[in-house]
Write a structure and sequence with these properties.
With 273 residues, the chain is of the alpha/beta class. The protein contains twelve helices and eight strands.
C-alpha cells in the first residue's frame, strides 16, 4: 500500500493481543497508528501500558478512526459489536474477522448497507493458538470486493506472527480440523513421548524439552527443506535400526489412521456447528 493504514481492533484479548504484538514487532504499524477497543478497564490499561497504543471501551471510536479493523471479539459478542459499528463502516475500510464460526455471508449480512452494496471489503481468517508465540498458521479467505493490493497487505499482517495462506471458504472446516485443533493433538503427542521418557528414568522437565524440541525441529525440516515428510522419515530410518522398530509398532497400533480419524472428527464437528 502506498500509505500507512491506521489499524483498529474491536476486541483485544489473547488472539487480538497476539496479532497486535506481531504487527508492532514487524514494524507494519507504529503504536500511534493503532487504536483498540476492549471490554474491561483492566484490558484497556494493559494495552496502553504494554503496547503504548490508544485504547478505548467504545467500539464506535475504533470504527470512526481506523482504516483496517480486526474483529476479534468472542463469537457471542459479534452481533452486538456489529450493530454498534455497522453504520460507520465505509467502502474504503477493510474488515478482517478472526471470529470463529462467522462465515463471509453472515459477516456481510451484519455489515452490509445500501451504501456498501457490493463494496464491503471483508476478509475471514482463522489463526491458531500458536499465534501467542509468533508461530500461527492462519487461513485467509477474502470476499470478492477486496482488491489484490489490500489482500496482500492483510496477508503481510498475519505473516508478522506466523504463516498465512489464502484458502477458499469451502475449506475452512478442514482448516479447523487441521491447523485449528491440531495443536491439542501435538500437545498430547508431546505428553505421551515425555511420559515414556519419564518411565525410563528421565526427569519430566527434561523429557518435555527433548520431546518438544524434537517436534519443533521436525516441523522446521518439513517447512525449510521442502522435502516430502515420507522422504525425511526414511532418512532417519536405518535398516534393522531403532527407528524402524518404533515405526512398525506405531503402524500396528494405527497411529496414522488415528490421526486421520481425529482430524476427520474435528472437521465433521465444525461442519455441524
Amino acid at each position: 500500500m502506498g500509505r500507512r493504514y491506521r489499524i483498529g481492533f474491536i476486541g483485544c484479548g489473547n488472539m487480538g493481543s497476539a496479532i497486535l504484538k506481531g504487527i508492532l514487532s514487524a514494524g507494519l504499524a507504529d503504536a500511534d497508528e493503532v487504536i483498540c477497543s476492549c471490554h474491561s478497564s483492566e484490558t484497556k490499561s494493559r494495552l496502553e501500558e504494554m503496547y503504548k497504543v490508544a485504547a478505548t471501551r467504545d467500539n464506535l471510536e475504533v470504527a470512526k478512526n481506523a482504516d483496517l479493523i480486526f474483529l476479534a471479539v468472542k463469537p457471542n459478542k459479534l452481533e452486538e459489536a456489529a450493530r454498534e459499528i455497522a453504520q460507520e463502516i465505509k467502502a474504503d475500510q477493510i474488515l478482517v474477522s478472526v471470529v470463529a464460526g462467522a462465515n463471509l455471508a453472515k459477516l456481510q449480512d451484519m455489515f452490509m448497507s445500501l451504501e456498501l452494496a457490493g463494496k464491503l471489503q471483508l476478509v475471514r481468517t482463522m489463526p491458531n493458538t500458536p499465534a501467542m508465540v509468533g508461530e500461527a498458521m492462519t487461513a485467509v479467505c477474502p470476499n470478492e470486493s477486496i482488491s489484490e493490493k489490500n489482500l496482500k497487505y492483510v496477508i503481510r499482517l498475519f505473516e508478522s506472527f506466523g504463516k498465512a495462506e489464502v484458502v477458499p471458504e469451502s475449506l475452512m472446516d478442514t482448516v479447523t480440523g487441521l491447523s485449528g485443533s491440531s495443536p491439542a493433538y501435538i500437545y498430547m503427542l508431546i505428553e505421551a513421548m515425555a511420559d515414556e521418557a519419564v518411565k525410563q528414568g528421565m526427569p519430566r522437565s527434561q523429557a518435555y524439552t527433548f520431546a518438544s524440541q524434537a517436534v519443533l525441529g521436525s516441523a522446521k525440516m518439513v517447512l525449510e527443506t521442502g522435502k516430502h515428510p515420507g522422504e525425511l522419515k526414511d532418512a532417519v530410518t536405518s535398516p534393522g535400526g531403532t527407528t524402524i522398530a518404533g515405526l512398525a509398532v506405531l503402524e500396528d497400533l494405527g497411529f496414522r489412521s488415528a490421526i486421520m480419524n481425529g482430524i476427520d472428527a474435528a472437521i465433521e464437528k465444525s461442519k455441524s456447528l
